[in-house]
Amino acid sequence: MSSTITDPEVLAFIDRTNAFYPPDAVKLSIADQRSHYDRMCRDFRRPRPAGLAVEGGGLQGAGRLIPIRRYWPTEPGQSRVVYFHGGGFVVGGLESHDDVCAEIADTCGLEVVAVDYRLCPEHPHPAAYDDALAAVDHLADRPLIVAGDSAGGNLAAAVSLVRQNKISGQVLIYPGLGGEAKHLPSYSDRAEAPLLSTQDVRYYGRIRAAGRNVSEDPTFAPLRAKSFRGLPPCFISAAEHDPLRDDGDDYVAQLSKAGVPAELLIEPELPHGHLRARSMSTRAAEAFARVCKAITDFDTRGLSLGG
Q1: Catalytic residue, candidates 125, 241, 272, 274
Q2: Residues 217, 242, 246, 299: which is the catalytic one?
Q3: What are phi and psi of 218, to 5 degrees?
Q4: CA distance 290 to 107
């Protein structure tokens, strides 16, 4: 794998994203980080596809009313997709990934439910995990596919560890699964990757842990699970230029050893966060299409198995 990005469309995406942030953005206050991130997401946001029904709401769980947003195509299929957004457990929400969820619903022909889980530092681990688990428990009255990017991919994998009988597939987009503790190579050879560095990963991990010992906690880092047997089949879309790249590789290896169908695609030239590049990068658009195909495949497979 090359250590350099040469695709001009991808480089333009990186420059456009970086224009919203000052150097060392992680040194900003949490409020300022959220403000910069929200402005960046608004700049990239695409209109929702025509004919899509969208409804806000909430579900009761984890001792609170968890905000959600539902997306329905005109004739939705039988499966439901539960989507957890990225953002390092610190930024993001229903607005930041609204267009992503809308396009998944439209492309896959399935209902998508976006979950607005609690963020750090106000609500450290396990608050986000508790919300994600409650959402799965509440929504599993039909075949369920869990999906998410980055921090959201972590949550999708974590709930799959304990609710495997309720989930027919997991689709993880450049997920952070706790690979640095295993000294995976991407944390060193992509330590200074654009849009997410290894130092950034550590920063978000410290905020989420809030001083607790999470070294043996698979709900914090799913790669720490003692067993991967019986988990739902998995598709991972990883980015070549991302310190989290090898988390996906290791997770798929663990699942495969346990007899779980699992597939990894490492998308060449792409950095972390490339979901937002799908309107300006051919590579990112094709990667998104493969994510949608994986969701559709899990829907078909789950129904054929009586899921």
Answers
A1: 272
A2: 242
A3: -70, -15
A4: 11
Q: What is the DSSP string of 29-60?
A: -HHHHHHHHHHHHHHHPPPPPTT-EEEEEEEE
pLDDT in 10s for each residue of the chain, 307 residues:
667 899 999 999 999 999 999 877 778 899 999 999 999 999 999 999 999 999 999 999 989 999 999 999 998 999 999 999 999 999 999 999 999 999 999 999 999 999 999 999 999 999 999 999 999 999 999 999 999 999 999 999 999 999 999 999 999 999 999 999 999 999 999 999 999 999 999 999 999 999 999 999 999 999 999 999 999 999 999 999 999 999 999 999 999 999 999 999 999 999 999 999 999 999 999 999 999 999 999 998 865 433 3
How far from 145 is each of 31, 93, 107, 178, 297, CA to CA, in Å?
32, 19, 15, 22, 11
Is residue 242 annotated as a catalytic residue, yes or no? yes
Catalytic residue among 96, 150, 160, 281: 150
Residues 6+ apart with CB under 8 A from 182: 223, 250
Neighbour count for residue 183 (Cβ, 10 Å): 9
Q: Which residue has the tokens 């972590």?
A: 154
C-alpha distance across the termini of the chain, in Å: 38
150 tagged catalytic: yes
* Global confidence as pTM: 0.96
